[in-house]
Write a structure and sequence with these properties.
Oligomer: single chain
Shape: globular
Number of helices: 0
Strand content: over 45%
Radius of gyration: 17 Å
Order of helices and strands: EEEEEEEEEEEE
Distance between the termini: 45 Å
Length: 154
């Protein structure tokens, strides 16, 4: 069977280059070196999308899906961002980053970009690196769960 074509906006960076599209019939025209983000997360009402910036992996962008525009960059990090989760109500962005020395969890306000909670997980000398392996929000957006590669949950 054939799928039904979907008209959807193209999400764009401030430079005007397409960031991504939700329309499989019309892929964005992008420079050859640009790639799609490894991690994206929709709000429950599908009005917002958080995505790791595809050009620099140490930032998270928040998009308005209906208008296909960048709302703001909600988080920058000195470490490489690996995971992102947007709360179901669209008000919070959970971000996990890691480096050679540590793993970091941040809870960021989607409205202001302010970091409201940060937790570091330093790597012990000689121990294998602990990384954040999963993050998810409770359906009410009141809680967030974080799983570490050593089996720790918080």
């Amino acid at each position: 069977t054939r799928g039904v074509p979907v008209r959807a906006p193209v999400l764009r960076y401030p430079s005007g280059l397409p960031a991504m599209t939700t329309n499989p019939q019309k892929p964005p025209s992008q420079p050859a070196m640009t790639r799609f983000p490894d991690q994206v997360s929709f709000s429950a009402d599908r009005s917002r999308l958080a995505a790791i910036d595809i050009n620099i992996a140490n930032a998270v962008n928040l998009y308005d899906v209906s208008e296909g525009r960048l709302i703001r960059q909600v988080c920058k990090s000195l470490d490489k961002i690996r995971l992102v989760a947007l709360s179901p109500d669209g008000n919070w962005v959970a971000v996990c980053a890691d480096s050679v020395r540590r793993a970091v969890f941040r809870l960021v306000s989607a409205e202001s970009g302010e970091v409201v909670l940060e937790r570091d997980f330093p790597h012990a000398e000689g121990d294998p690196a602990v990384t954040v392996s999963a993050i998810t929000f409770h359906p009410t957006s009141a809680k967030v769960a974080v799983a570490l590669s050593d089996g720790t949950l918080f």
